[in-house]
Here is the input.
Amino acid sequence: MDFGRIWAEINLDALNYNLERVRKLAGKRKLMFAVKADAYGHGLREIAREIYERVDAFGVAGVEEGINLRNAGIKNTPILVLSPAPYEEIPEIFEHHLTPSVTETGFARRISLEAKKRNTELGVHIEIDTGMGRTGVSVSEAFGFIKQVSELPGLRIEGVFTHFPTADSDILFSETQLGEYYQLLARIEKQGFNNILRHAANSAGLLNLPESHLDMIRPGLIVYGILPESYHSGKRKTDLDLIPVMSLRSRIVNLRDFPKGVSISYERNYFTSRDSRIAVITAGYGDGYPYALTNRGEAIVNGKRARIAGNVCMDLTMLDVTGIPDIEIGDPVTLLGSAEGNTITANELAAWAQTIPYEIICQVSPRVPRIYIRNGKVTKVKKLLSSYGKKQ
Here is the structure.
C-alpha cells in the first residue's frame, strides 16, 4: 500500500472481532465504549459509525467530542461526558442531548437552572470518588449529595459510577473501592434509587474484577485490541484473544553505508560500532513516534527487527539495518503492528518509551493519515491535514 511518508492502518475487522469478544464476556450487561481522545487515536467518527448499533452508549471526555459524534450521525445512542464540563458549555449539553457527569454542587445547580429555563429534564450520572483522587464526589459525602441532586428541578439521576486507578496492578485496593461503592449503593437503594445504572469496570476491571461488572461496563483499551500490561507480560492469563486495530507504518527514504565510529543524528549520542548500513525512515516525534525511543526502539524491516540509531527527530528516524538483506529505498517499515511474521505491540513500544500503551496510540499525530481497512480492502483514507488546503 502506498499512502505517503507515514500512515496508520485501522483494521475494522479487528475492531468488530474484539467488540464481539468483549460483548460475550460482558454477558447481558450494557456496554459503554470509550471513544475519547479521537477514539484513542483511531478516529472518533469512523470508529463510532462502525459499531454504534452494537453498543449501548459512548463515553467521551468533553462536550466537543460529544457534539462531534452527534454531527457524525450518532443521533440516538446515549453519550456520557465522563469529565466535568465547563459551566459555559452547559447549553450545548442540552442542545446536543448529551449526558453530563455531575461531580460538584455548583454544576448541578447550573444545569438545573438551564433545564428549568428550557422547560425540560436532563438525565445525569454522578461520579463517586472511591479512591481515584481526581474528580467525583467523596464517597463519605456521596449519600447527601445524591439526595440533594435528586431534589433539584429538571434533573434525573440515570447513573452512579466510580473509577478504578489500579484495577490491573492493585486488586486489593480496587476491591476496597468496590466495597465502599456497594455500601453507598445499598444506602441509596433504600431511599428508592432503584432504576439507576451502576457502572465501575474499565478494561482492567472487566478482566480482573467480575464483581465490578454491575449494570454496565466501560471498556476502551481492549476493544482496540490491547491487553492491560499484566496480561501482556504474562503475569495474568485470559481466554480473551484480541487483534490490535491500529498498525503504524512508514518507509525508507535514504540508505547510506558508514564506517565504524561515525555519529548519527542530533546530539551525537550514537556512534556506529562497525561498518554499518543506516536507513532513514519518514517518522518522528512530529508524527507521535516517541522521542523516548531514541537508541532503544525497534522497527520491522523485511520481516526483521532493526534498532533505532541515534535521536528520533521531528520528521525522520534512523535505523541500523546492517545485515538485513534486499533493502531498497521505498520499502515499508512497520513501527507498530505485524509484518512478515514479526510483531511490535503497543505494550512493547510503551515499555521501550517508558510510558503506557494508551499514550502510544493516542499520541499518533493528526498529520498521520488513517487508512480504514475491511476484508483486506481500503474503505476510507482520512488525511486530516489535506482539509487545510480546501476552500470552505
Summary: The mean pLDDT is 96.
